[in-house]
């Protein structure tokens, strides 16, 4: 995941209806109804984005908010969840009562917990975290659990509390359970995979799993016994375990559609399979004023007047193998030749133009990258020479950190600013395999152009520099490879029991959701 550089093409000042309201304009906002955002929220100055982002999205002609509204069933289930969360959150008596079972780590098999929890633990960069956190919330909806988050310092101050009535999703700082700080040895003993591996008979599995009050779920890509989590029979074993602690850096929602036990409910929740993360992410993630203020000010200053906002997100995984000198021609081949998003340059370097004598199209390109070179080269390119279509192209960037600092809170603020600015663009070009890019285009509901890995440029020079995504949904990179519930699913793109799953355009081994027709 990447902190982005932003390339902006500034556009005609007449197009002011896309202007993002700043916090000072809060009183002019009228929240949309019906909405995933509860009407129980007051008009909070402390979280201006909760009301202002839906207002901006409703007025944006390029945004897909109104093209795929949330289903009435999802709205009702969200409202039900909010009541459950309030009843079971860390301020409640139920939470204190259920916490007592963690002292002994065992529970009576005859006692059904009144509140059951899924505790999310952060792993890797911000894009990975947002994807896995949204997936964990979908799991909470499917299993009637309550989602709590064990944020580290680098996550504090990024998002507003998502649930109404003063409920919190934050695990208390003084709340301890064995294994939260006791190292990998304990967590290995009380992991789902460890218990299943040691159980040779089904009856043993039931006793081992159902008798415990706490289980760790490791769903970060290792093809081990923990991945048996994605079986219906395993889900039945987990039903009465009060505490599940989940550690994952993946967007694992797509595989739920392969599981027969979840499929019918998911179809009711999400009739449009290409708007799952969009709905969940927009509900769950409202940037704090610290983040939203930077987003609104940058947008108002550089993007609001553009006829077209172009987002370019560049993630260089191996700088030694793919230096900027190799990536830049690759990017231009994608944006000027393959997609036609950016205009080519005129050969005449001194061709005079005057905005006073002619109407010119203004374009804003937002470049998001840890590296500065892409912003600098593109900015100079469109400044030194005129565009072939006589468009005025401006190139902008919010930051260029140089390298990823996952545990740095200030770094994550800059990353989140870039994610939301990218999500407010009209068209997106993002890097293959980048979870940072996935979050941006999924929040926007846009089908991006994926930059392919140039690799051996000479060997791949005849291949497309980028491909258009079929669906805006993120990719589940590392899914299970066993036959779920003894059903041979085979190639995901081949249909079978889950015809809404396809192989990812940017990573052929991954799965993603799409509205497929067979």
From TrEMBL:
Where does the UniProt annotation locate this protein?
Golgi apparatus, Golgi stack membrane
Q: Pfam family example for this protein?
A: XG_FTase
Q: What EC number(s) is this enzyme filed under?
A: 2.4.1.-
Disordered: region residues: 37-71
Enzyme class, UniProt record, top EC level: transferase
Name the keywords, alphabetized.
Answer: Cell wall biogenesis/degradation, Glycoprotein, Glycosyltransferase, Golgi apparatus, Signal, Transferase
* Polar residues composition bias: residue spans: 37-57
* Membrane topology value: Single-pass type II membrane protein
Please give the superkingdom of this protein's source. Answer: Eukaryota
List the GO cellular component terms: Golgi cisterna membrane
Composition bias of kind Low complexity appears in: 58-71
The regions listed as transmembrane in this protein's record are none
Q: Which GO terms describe its biological process?
A: cell wall biogenesis; cell wall organization; xyloglucan biosynthetic process
| Gene3D superfamilies per UniProt | 3.40.50.11340, 3.40.50.11350
Q: Where is the signal peptide?
A: 1-18
Cite the GO molecular-function annotations of the record: galactoside 2-alpha-L-fucosyltransferase activity
Q: What is its main location?
A: Golgi
Can you tell me which family this protein belongs to? Belongs to the glycosyltransferase 37 family.
Purpose? May be involved in cell wall biosynthesis.
| Protein name as it appears in the record | Fucosyltransferase
Source organism (scientific name): Linum tenue
Q: What is the lineage of its organism?
A: Eukaryota, Viridiplantae, Streptophyta, Embryophyta, Tracheophyta
């Amino acid at each position: 995941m990447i902190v982005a550089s932003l390339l902006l093409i500034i556009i005609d000042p007449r197009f002011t209806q896309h202007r993002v309201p700043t916090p000072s304009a809060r009183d002019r906002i009228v929240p949309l109804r019906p909405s995933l955002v509860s009407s129980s929220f007051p008009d909070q100055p402390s979280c201006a984005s909760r009301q202002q982002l839906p207002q901006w999205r409703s007025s944006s002609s390029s945004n897909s908010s109104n093209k795929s509204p949330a289903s009435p069933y999802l709205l009702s289930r969200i409202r039900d969840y909010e009541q459950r969360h309030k009843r079971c959150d860390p301020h409640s008596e139920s939470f204190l009562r259920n916490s007592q079972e963690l002292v002994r780590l065992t529970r009576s098999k005859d006692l059904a917990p009144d509140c059951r929890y899924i505790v999310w633990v952060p792993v890797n960069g911000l894009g990975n975290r947002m994807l896995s956190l949204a997936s964990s919330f979908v799991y909470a909806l499917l299993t009637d659990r309550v989602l709590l988050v064990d944020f580290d310092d680098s996550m504090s101050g990024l998002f507003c509390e998502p649930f109404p009535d003063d409920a919190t999703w934050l695990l208390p700082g003084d709340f301890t359970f064995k294994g939260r700080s006791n190292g990998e040895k304990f967590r290995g003993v009380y992991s789902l995979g460890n218990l299943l591996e040691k159980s040779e008979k089904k009856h043993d599995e039931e006793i081992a799993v159902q008798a415990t009050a706490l289980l760790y779920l490791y769903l970060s890509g290792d093809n081990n016994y923990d991945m048996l989590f994605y079986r219906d029979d395993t889900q039945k074993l987990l039903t009465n375990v009060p505490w599940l602690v989940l550690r994952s850096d993946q967007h694992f929602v797509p595989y739920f559609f392969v599981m027969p036990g979840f499929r019918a409910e998911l179809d009711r929740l999400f009739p449009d399979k290409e708007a799952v993360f969009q709905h969940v992410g927009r509900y769950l993630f409202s940037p704090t004023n610290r983040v939203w203020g930077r987003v609104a000010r940058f947008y108002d200053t550089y993007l609001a007047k553009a006829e077209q906002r172009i987002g370019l997100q560049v993630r260089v995984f191996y700088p030694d193998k793919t230096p900027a000198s190799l990536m830049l021609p690759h990017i231009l081949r994608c944006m000027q030749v393959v997609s036609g998003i950016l205009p080519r340059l005129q050969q005449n370097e001194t061709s005079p133009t005057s905005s006073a004598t002619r109407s010119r199209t203004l374009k804003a390109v937002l470049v998001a990258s840890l590296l500065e070179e892409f912003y600098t080269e593109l900015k100079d390119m469109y400044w030194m020479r005129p565009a072939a279509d006589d468009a005025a192209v401006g190139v902008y960037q919010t930051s260029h950190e140089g390298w990823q600092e996952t545990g740095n809170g200030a770094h994550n603020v800059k990353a989140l600013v870039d994610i939301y600015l990218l999500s407010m663009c009209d068209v997106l070009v993002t890097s293959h395999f980048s979870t940072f890019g996935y979050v941006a285009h999924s929040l926007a509901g846009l089908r991006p152009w994926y930059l392919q890995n140039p690799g051996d440029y000479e060997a791949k020079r005849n291949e497309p520099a980028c491909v258009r995504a079929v669906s805006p949904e993120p990719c589940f990179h590392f899914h299970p490879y066993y036959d779920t519930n003894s059903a041979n699913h085979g190639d995901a793109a081949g249909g079978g029991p889950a015809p809404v799953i396809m192989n990812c355009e940017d990573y052929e081994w991954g799965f993603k959701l799409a509205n497929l027709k067979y």
